[in-house]
Amino acid sequence: MKGPLFYAKILLFGEYGIIKDSKGLAIPFNAYRGALKSSKDLEGAAKDSNANLERFYNHLSQLNSDKVSFNLEAFKNDIDNGMYFDSSIPQGYGVGSSGALVASIYDKYATDKITVLENLTREKLLKLKEIFSLMESFFHGKSSGLDPLNSYLSLPILINSKENIEPAGIPSQKEGKGAVFLLDSEQIGETEPMVNIFMNKMKNEGFRKMISEEFATHTDACIEDFLSGNVSSLFGNVKKLSKVVLKNFKPMIPVAFHKIWAQGISTNDYYLKLCGSGGGGYILGFTEDYQKAQESLKDYKLELVYRF
């Protein structure tokens, strides 16, 4: 048995904001992927994954929802026969490792599933997102459902609000100097504690004001610039966003990166932002000159995502 491939995702813009109904833009990232496989002799990561699928099966069998049902018998049977999720997507890195797994299980075991080939109306997209949110809550305690949706559809997705999502056309890549890149913090980040910190901060009126007046405003401007290909305006807005995040989201930025985050803003060689919930994993970088950013960040591992 070998299932279809499901890819990692990158939330270019909108981390935390989408919890509070501002815009977001997520794109598939094909450098990392996963698929369901099975083996008679499970060991190491495959054995761990098989045990994790058993726990996920228990979660799905207790889901009391009229939105989705699964062929649980087939799922359990495949687990007992050595099924595991073979994935190159790093866990705790903010690029959707659990999302790809959720998408693969929905694809294989959901009865009456919404397929990628049908006309994806807004209602169908919202229904899928809701189903994936229920499924993925097993991994994070609370999930928007966006990571699995992105992985399942393998399309860029524009989140206008909780009730308004649509596939997005992003400008094709150019062979320019500019780039979006991933910076490896070489630390694992856990989603749930970071989201809890954010939710606690949201009890503060000043923080809420900053989210709506600064964070969401800059995020929306970045998304508009990116989708319309307005690169010169984009970098100005990404810089503003990077400053706001450094000032207000310090607990989500690994301490070792506070200095290089500020350095990017002062030199304009690159601008950093959170990739996912933060706390470790990848940090997302934007630069008008990728070569210059590579020189400035020569002590770190960078990975190219998109060229301008």
Structure in words:
The protein has 308 residues and is α+β, with helices and mostly antiparallel strands. The chain has two domains: 6-167, Ribosomal Protein S5, domain 2 (2-Layer Sandwich); 179-307, Alpha-Beta Plaits, CATH 3.30.70. Helices cover 44% and strands 20% of the residues. Strands 1, 2, 4, 6 and 7 form a five-stranded antiparallel sheet that branches. Strands 9-10-8-11 form a four-stranded antiparallel sheet. Helix 1 (44-61) packs antiparallel against helix 2, helix 3 packs across helix 4 and helix 4 crosses helix 5.
Alpha-carbon Rg, integer: 19 Å
The amount of helix comes to: 40-55%
Return the structural class: alpha+beta
Our count of helices gives 10
Low-confidence stretches: none
Largest sheet report: 5 strands, antiparallel
Intertermini distance: 40 Å
Topology:
Elements: E1 6-13, E2 24-38, H1 44-61, E3 69-70, H2 72-80, E4 83-87, H3 97-109, E5 110-111, H4 122-140, H5 146-153, E6 157-161, E7 164-167, E8 179-184, H6 191-201, H7 205-228, H8 231-248, H9 258-267, E9 271-274, E10 282-287, H10 290-296, E11 302-307
Antiparallel strand pairs: 1-2, 2-4, 2-6, 3-5, 6-7, 8-10, 8-11, 9-10
Helix pairs in contact: 1-2, 3-4, 3-5, 4-5, 7-8, 8-9
